[in-house]
Amino acid sequence: MLHRIGIAVGLCLAMGALPLLAGNPPDLETNPPSQQSERVSELPAVFIAGDSTAAKGKGAVQQGWAEPFRHYFDPTKVTVFNRARGGRSSRTFITEGLWKELIDDVRAGDVVILQFGHNDGGAINEEPPGSDRPTRARGSLPGLGEESVDILNVVTGKQETVYTFGHYMRQMIDDVRARNAHPVLVNLTLRNLRDARERLERGSGLYGGWTYQLAREMGVPFIDLTHRLADRLDVMDKSEVDALFEQDYVHFNERGAELHAEQILSGLKGLRSIEMEAWLSEKGQAVKADTTAWLQLPVPTDRTLPTVYLIGDSTVRNGRGDGSNGEWGWGDFLVGFVDRARINVVNRAVGGLSSRTYLTYGHWARVRSMLQPGDVVVMQFGHNDSAPINDTHRARGTLPGVGEQTEAIENLLTGEPEVVGSYGSYLRTFIAESRSAGATPVVCSPVPRKQWKNRALLRDTDRYPLWARQVAEQESVAFVDLHSLVADHYEQMGPHDVDLLFADAHTHTSAAGALLNASVFVNAAKQLPMQPIHAWLHADEASSTQD
What distance in Å separates the CA atoms of residue 92 and residue 79, rounded to the nearest whole number? Predict the structure, then answer.
């Protein structure tokens, strides 16, 4: 068993993400360069590379976010250079020499924000037949691979080798790091387009997902601008949102630029990896940090496909999901068991949270806003629900059981009144709201801790595993008893071999333990009466890497 798991772990950690097909992003018009372009002082700097959604605009009705962004910084302490240029893709930003001009000015300790994708889906060498637009050659090949194509560029008249979106982005990241500076990746700005449920589009094509995958691959900080801002604008009246996009559905006005800039700064402040508080102006200091940004939570790669979302605690996703301290959650290995041409796997579990605080801290709202009909929501809570209901440390406990009992408190952590419900009541909320979005909920009992009495694993059979089953039965929801199934495996292996599956004393699994737990979930899921799941899953062994 351990040998088989070890081989699969090695494959998981060695293989990279597979690219998917790209969408068809819009044609963005050229903007004038920002007047703030030359580095004339020894101050540290923040550089922005991107397209017209960041570049200096043509007037009040159309403005890029990087223009108001600089007002969040104190110009006596740092200089913000908006080098974004309208109409450019990751490819043409490099081939036209704009990137060389930028990187030649970068010094150690600077920050370089990279945001591309809107124009990368354009034509590689000519506009489609019958187009009345000027001929352009700016598209990049789709995905993150190293494919290339040789062309005679119809614009420049020169031979050119065209690479993928990922290739050009990697080049920029590598160049920034070679200067001992800090690259930051940001996914796409919003377009004022809506789905059938009148929610704002969450990304043009697949570039947002590829940007996240690239950030994970290269260990680069990532800011999820797309979903954070969409969540904010979705609660606004449609007429208010329309007023932000005066010119067209792609380009926003000064107010829209301000909203984008504020969200990006909020993400930067929450990364925990780049210290820039001393650079901020009074306006910048007033922006609240996105306290979840450091977690680098994933987003769907291809929104044309259904998505399996995982919600839960650190046994599902630990920290940033990068194996820090050797600790992994089982949800990070589920992706290796699915056919990624048919399904996204998005692990949004957050360590330290209970079913209650996953809801009250806003994490569930973020998942709910991304749900589409045909998605699946897999939930596993319980490890943290037994904590105190009210204290100054975490205030995360839930009332025991599955009833409708409540307790009104003045939350000592938040200072706000709160009505706390039972463990079961929070699971029912996730179930009901998943169903209302057209998604299918799946309830899991919490994986067991490594606690033995002789050679028998101590099982928590009369509390959270039992209550998870009861809720699933009451709500007629698919149920996977991970607690019992994993415990059975542990007992078959024995204490010595199980020790190798854990990275701490008794709670957090190593990569091998997380992979085992993911395989247990997959084998159980194959028995569920949910036909789409059967088509998505591979055989017993993980076939690819964790995200």
Answer: 25
CB 69 within 8 A of CB 113: no
The yes-or-no verdict on residue 29 having pLDDT over 80 is no
pLDDT value at 45 more than 60: yes
Residue the block writes with tokens 């007037």: 59
3-class secondary-structure state, position 469: helix
To 5 degrees, how large is the angle CA 381–CA 387–CA 390? Answer: 120
Q: What are the tens digits of pLDDT across the range 345-364? A: 999 999 999 999 999 999 99
Q: What residue type is assigned to position 505 of the chain?
A: A
C-alpha count within 13 angstroms, C-beta hemisphere, residue 38: 1
Contacts of residue 104, Cβ cutoff 8 Å, sequence gap at least 6: none
Residue linked to tokens 């504020």 = 262
Amino acid at residue number 210: W
Please list, residue by residue across 382-397, b when 16 or more beta carbons sit within 10 angstroms of its beta carbon and e when fewer do. Answer: bbbbebebeeeeebbb
Look at the block and give the residue holding tokens 């994986």.
447
Asked if 177 and 184 count as a contact pair (C-beta separation under 8 A), the reply is no
CA dist., res. 35 & res. 80, Å (int): 11
| Secondary structure (3-state) at 63 | coil
Q: Which residue has the tokens 């703030």?
A: 36
CB-based burial, 443-474: b 16+ in 10 Å, e otherwise:
bbbbbbbbeeeeeebeebeeebbbbbbbbbee
Which run of H or E residues covers position 222?
A: strand 222-223
Biggest CA–CA distance in the chain, Å, is 78
CA–CA separation, 446 vs 134, rounded Å? 58
- The pLDDT, as a whole number, for residue 132 is 62
What span, in angstroms and rounded, lies between the C-alpha atoms of 219 and 273? 11
Q: Can you spell out the DSSP letters for 349-415?
A: --TT--HHHHHHTTHHHHHHHH--TT-EEEEE--TTTTS-SS-SS-----BSSSS---EEEE-TTT-
Residue 277 has a CB neighbour count (10 Å cut-off) of 10
Q: Which amino acid is present at 521? A: F
Which residue bears the tokens 């991107």?
50
Strand-pair partners of 223: 186
Residue 356 is encoded by which pair of tokens? 């209650």
**Closest among 107, 284, 113, 111 to 189, alpha carbons compared:** 113
